[in-house]
Design goal:
The chain is of the alpha+beta class. It is 26% helix and 30% strand.
Length: 289
């Protein structure tokens, strides 16, 4: 019997700007930075993802609290291990502004004002997820083969849209591209995906993040309160992350997957909900590949 009986790989598609904070920082230029992985890429920690989804589900499905607690854990009973778990959400692709320098306009190909960007290192992490869950569940995924084909060209800056040859990304990064055919999930909404060499890709991704200065106003005299100036970091809308839900055998897991996860689409992640941030769409791998 496989270790995990139920698994659901999925993409997290940001409908609005998204802030999943790592807490305040006195060492960085941003007071409230986005969560980062060990390489400095934006990520969503499994604990944040699981906690946010559990809180959301408890409100949406109050009559299934016992199932949700059994699968995702109960705060009041931390000694009992939950049946289910989420993996850290890996950045899959992020929007970047683009200026096309030398575009092949054959076949009436359209111009773009933005494209998706990822790096080889990020795709390696996605591949590692897929390989590990395949072994733990005895299930294979076509996306693995696609990523393997892309990784065979490591070191090259690739475009998975043959019409892009040379571009400037985020106003500062001049990149020459090689065309490469790959069956990328429809999660990207037919936008071109550029796979960049890690050093330049990391800089392009960092430049794609949104930094916002915010202030707290004293409503009596309409002035900024003392200490009421800070900065926040967001990933832009349309950013895509990749994660996996895994659960062990159990009747609660079966109910959770078939009756809850199956229809779960829009949720709230991270903070700043009161200013219109954090709405995401969950797109299950089974539906987009």
């Amino acid at each position: 019997m496989p270790y995990y009986t139920f698994l659901q790989p999925f993409f997290i598609h940001a409908i609005t700007h998204l802030h999943v904070g790592s807490g305040s920082s006195v060492e960085e230029e941003i007071d409230l930075p986005f969560q980062r992985d060990e390489l400095g890429y934006p990520t969503i920690y499994a604990s944040s993802l699981k906690g946010a989804l559990k809180s959301f589900l408890l409100k949406e499905f109050p009559n299934m609290r016992n199932v949700i607690y059994k699968v995702l854990g109960e705060d009041e009973n931390p000694e009992e291990a939950s049946l289910g778990t989420f993996l850290d959400a890996i950045l899959f692709a992020i929007p970047a502004r683009v200026v096309e320098i030398n575009t092949n306009k054959a076949n009436n190909m359209k111009s773009h004002v933005w494209v998706y960007v990822t790096t080889y290192e990020l795709l390696k992490k996605v591949k590692a997820y897929l390989e590990s869950i395949s072994r733990l569940s005895n299930v294979s995924f076509n996306l693995q083969n696609t990523i393997d084909n892309i990784l065979s060209r490591e070191g090259k800056n690739l475009t998975l849209d043959g019409g892009l040859k040379e571009v400037i990304l985020n106003e500062d990064f001049h990149v020459k591209l090689e065309a490469f055919n790959a069956n990328i999930p429809s999660i990207l909404n037919d936008k071109p995906l550029l796979v960049l060499e890690d050093s330049i890709g990391g800089e392009v991704i960092n430049r794609s993040l949104i930094r916002v200065r915010r202030i707290r106003i004293n409503r009596n005299n309409k002035t900024v309160e003392s200490g009421g100036l800070w900065s926040e970091e967001y990933v832009p809308m349309k950013t895509v992350f990749f994660s996996v839900f895994l659960s062990k055998e159990g009747k609660e897991s079966a109910v959770f997957v078939s009756c809850i996860l199956k229809d779960l689409k829009y949720v709230i992640l991270g903070g700043k909900e009161t200013i219109g941030k954090g709405i995401v769409e969950l797109r299950w791998l089974r539906d987009v590949v």
